[in-house]
Design the sequence.
């Protein structure tokens, strides 16, 4: 297809400029009215919502703990423990369920975006529908401030879809910028889009910095920009042991892109800056596929790397709770629980090591099998390698004892484990 259309254009005598100008016209659905009327405090923060299925569990909760888990964190590597208070919030959850976090864009990113768009972050506005009878949802609360709209409601840090480039081309004053943006939004600019936008993960902000002649109306920008989506995390605590708290294990997302650009993940960067006792989060609960076997006598095999330890910490906490609740002769015979965990160093990123070792001493966890990829400079050991060496144990657990096996971590790790 990529070769056919240029050939047809050449045969018909159609220039690239003609192709770039043959764009879809994006018409705004709203008009903006600026006013001095201030919206209610934190209206945007509290009005974040997801699907209707999650509405009943939306709560504003207090942050009570934010601590580093790595012994030797760096500017690029950090994994931290978050504890949220759900006391008096009527927010029950199951062990290893998922929690959705509504993130916030970085203040510096928002300041740069305001400069690119030529808008005052302090300005208050209301949106009005242009078309009578339309039911299109407003992209932000009404009324709203420019700063809150950009902080809480639009995705400024993800690569935009092709249609968004066509929208930008519509408002580009520079002919060369209009042509390139227009072509990248069409099939003819597929390679340019793939190489410079998709692969390089250019953000909305970076695109406006690359094409400075683009100045769309603010209301149209809000309408065309993708909404800022919640991020999902597996809960790292047991509701039996912590009925009024939710614990999360979060890895800071920082990656180096072309020309040394550092791309910061929106949610992890936001959560890293939160202050216990001062900040709150907007969250909701969703059920998970991670459920302990109904028969507590069933052996369990847990395989994880990095923050994939989260659901298994919840499992272990639940096992410890049952162990402590049983007294004297009532203490049940504990099933075999084996944890296979991959990290770099045993003394750096073996997350929750003290808790796991305590559970092992109590007999709740039968075996802890570490795969240390950087401990020995001559040999890299990954979790799939340890699983392969433990083949006889795994075969006995699965084939003879009907064990349940759970895997949590990166997609590549999951594929490697499946191939063992």
Sequence:
């Amino acid at each position: 297809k990529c070769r056919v259309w240029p050939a047809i254009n050449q045969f018909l005598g159609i220039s690239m400029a003609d192709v770039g100008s043959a764009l879809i016209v994006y018409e705004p659905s709203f008009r903006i009215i600026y006013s001095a009327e201030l919206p209610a405090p934190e209206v945007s923060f509290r009005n974040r919502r997801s699907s209707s299925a999650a509405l009943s569990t939306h709560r504003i909760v207090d942050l009570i703990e934010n601590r580093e888990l790595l012994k030797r964190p760096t500017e690029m590597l950090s994994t931290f423990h978050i504890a949220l208070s759900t006391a008096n919030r009527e927010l029950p959850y199951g062990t290893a369920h998922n929690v959705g976090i509504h993130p916030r864009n970085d203040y510096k990113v928002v300041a740069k975006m305001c400069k690119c768009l030529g808008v005052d972050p302090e300005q208050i506005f209301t949106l009005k529908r242009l078309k009578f009878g339309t039911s299109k949802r407003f992209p932000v609360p009404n009324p709203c401030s420019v700063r809150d709209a950009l902080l809480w409601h639009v995705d400024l840090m993800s690569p935009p879809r092709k249609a968004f480039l066509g929208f930008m081309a519509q408002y580009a004053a520079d002919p060369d910028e209009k042509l390139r943006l227009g072509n990248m939004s069409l099939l003819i600019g597929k390679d340019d889009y793939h190489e410079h936008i998709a692969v390089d993960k250019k953000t909305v902000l970076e695109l406006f910095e690359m094409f400075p002649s683009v100045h769309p109306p603010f209301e149209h920008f809000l309408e065309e920009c993708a909404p800022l989506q919640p991020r999902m995390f597996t809960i790292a605590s047991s509701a039996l042991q912590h009925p009024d708290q939710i614990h999360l294990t979060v890895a800071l997302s920082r990656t180096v892109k072309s020309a040394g650009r550092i791309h910061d993940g929106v949610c992890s960067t936001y959560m890293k800056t939160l202050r216990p006792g001062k900040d709150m989060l907007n969250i909701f609960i969703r059920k998970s596929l991670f459920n302990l076997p109904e028969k507590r006598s069933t052996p369990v095999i847990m395989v994880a790397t990095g923050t994939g330890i989260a659901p298994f910490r919840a499992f272990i906490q639940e096992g410890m709770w049952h162990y402590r609740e049983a007294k004297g002769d009532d203490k049940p015979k504990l099933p075999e629980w084996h944890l296979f965990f991959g990290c770099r160093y045993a003394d750096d990123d073996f997350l929750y090591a003290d808790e796991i070792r305590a559970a092992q001493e109590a007999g709740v966890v039968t075996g802890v099998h570490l795969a240390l990829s950087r401990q020995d400079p001559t040999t890299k050991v990954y979790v799939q390698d340890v699983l392969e060496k433990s083949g006889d144990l795994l075969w006995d657990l699965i084939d003879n004892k009907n064990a349940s096996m759970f895997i949590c971590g990166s997609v590549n790790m999951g594929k490697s484990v499946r191939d063992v």
